[in-house]
Amino acid sequence: MKTWILVVVLLAVVMAAAAIVVYSGGIDRNVPPAPTPTPVATPMSTPTPVQTPTPAPTPFATPVATPTPAPTQSLASPTPSGAVLPEDITSLEVYTDGDSYHALDQMAIVVNITAARRLQGVNVSLVGITNSRGRNIMDTQMTLDLPQGESEQHFGFNVPSCTTCTGISYGLHNFTVTVSYNGAPLKSVVKTIEIRQA
Fold first, then answer.
1. Could you tell me the pTM of the whole model?
2. Is the C-alpha dihedral spanning 176, 178, 183, 185 positive or negative?
């Protein structure tokens, strides 16, 4: 009996609550819904850049000064082998067997040369006694090797006739003796003779 009374009371309470809801016009739809919780942004940790170690500066190579070798003094003569200098001929003299000659006479000539050292391939020339047309009547030469010291070289010359054909006049005439090497004169001397009328 008591159970039924409890059931009836509960039903009455439920119906009364329903009536209150219907009376109030139902659920108020203007009531904003409960706010959706905003997810909290988890701060991302910024990766720390890895520092690349700076390479140590490469030291510049210091140039090493190469010592310059001291010039070696040559004990040999500074004159290159085969070269001949004017100083190598220390003396040059010319002698004839006379001072005056007649036409067609034979003249003997001695050339005296003094060399400071042995010389090879030296040229000795005798040029002169020029005629009226500018031609050298005396024009002879020889190539020889000179020993160190004094040496004599012998030459001969036929005195020309003094005619209009040769162009040689009577009087004084010169000729030059020259010692040279490879075309370069080293020393020379002039000799004067006289051609006389017979």
1. 0.58
2. negative
